[in-house]
Specification:
CATH architecture: 2-Layer Sandwich
Mean pLDDT: 91
CATH superfamily: Histidine kinase-like ATPase, C-terminal domain
Number of domains: 1
Oligomer: single chain
Number of helices: 8
Radius of gyration: 18 Å
Number of strands: 10
Strand content: 25-35%
Helix content: 25-40%
Largest sheet: 5 strands, antiparallel
CATH class: Alpha Beta
CATH topology: Heat Shock Protein 90
Structural class: alpha/beta
Shape: globular
Low-confidence stretches: 208-214
């Protein structure tokens, strides 16, 4: 069985194409599945694609091919190393390595985010305390994914786009999704977009007996001033907050987990500090 997917950007249509790929083959067993990436592929989308291919690969033989321009960048970020291709050195240092972390690898994930994302010279300036807080928020996303879901791995990848002056960074799990987690906690029947919206309210949490939440309020505030964006994809729900303009949409079928996608603008000259500093 063969499938070619075209022009995968990290937008609603790009995620819908990956979800459709999952839906097409999710019931397949003991099949040879060849997937071709063609024309364009946003490198940070390696994280959701990698999650889908791992799920499909538990019962099928997966082979992956790509147009030459796509192949080169996905060899540079290490994604294609999981599919039999040799690595290629990234001379321009635009990639943020594709990684697959086990549930208990909190420390390794924190080191990766600190070294590969937050210490990049293209990012805006942070005070040490502000940078530490951003790291804590991103680590909380990892912890929440492993606490609330049965995901085996956390997938992550990023890409610096000099021409667009931004860094895109994705974190993915293959757990039960925000909708099921929230509904189980509340005894509710919220749709996916409603559950995502609930989870974004400061103080809301599905952990019993402790304060908190998904740790995204501060992250959204930073991205607002930065003029970046935050996307959340979970079950059939799509959320995008760009410049405090919030967009909710519904996919035709469900993503098998949750994606958090950050776009950080690199032409930002602000210095970010915590309120008490």
């Amino acid at each position: 069985m063969n499938k070619t997917i075209y022009n995968i950007n990290d937008d609603f249509e790009g995620f819908q194409a990956l979800i459709s790929l999952w839906d097409l083959f999710r019931s397949s067993q003991y099949s040879d599945i060849e997937i071709q990436l063609s024309r364009f592929f946003s490198a940070n989308m390696s994280a959701p694609l990698g999650a889908i291919l791992d799920l499909l690969g538990t019962k099928n033989n997966i082979s992956l091919k790509a147009d030459s321009n796509i192949q080169t960048i996905l060899q540079k970020n290490g994604f294609l190393s999981y599919h039999g291709y040799p690595a290629v050195w990234d001379n321009n240092n635009t990639t943020i390595q594709y990684m697959r972390f086990k549930r208990n690898e909190n420390a390794a994930f924190a080191e990766y985010v600190s070294n590969k994302l937050l210490n990049r010279p293209e990012l805006p300036d942070f005070t040490p305390s502000a940078k530490k807080k951003i790291l804590q928020v991103i680590l909380e996303i990892f912890v929440n994914a492993t606490y609330h879901t049965k995901t085996e791995y956390i997938y992550t990848c990023g890409q610096f786009y000099p021409n667009k002056q931004c860094i895109d960074f994705s974190i993915v799990d293959t757990g039960t999704g925000i909708r099921n987690t929230v509904n189980n906690r509340l005894g509710a029947k919220k749709q996916a977009v409603e559950a995502i919206e609930w989870a974004l309210i400061d103080g809301n949490t599905t952990k019993e007996g402790v304060p908190g939440g998904y740790g995204l309020t501060l992250l959204q505030e930073f991205l607002h001033y930065n003029k970046g964006s935050l996307q959340i994809i979970s079950n059939d729900g799509y959320y995008c907050n760009e410049n405090k303009y919030k967009k909710f949409r519904v996919f035709s079928t469900e993503f098998p987990g949750t994606v958090l996608n950050l776009q950080i603008k690199t032409d930002d000259t602000n210095l970010y500090r915590l309120k008490h500093e």
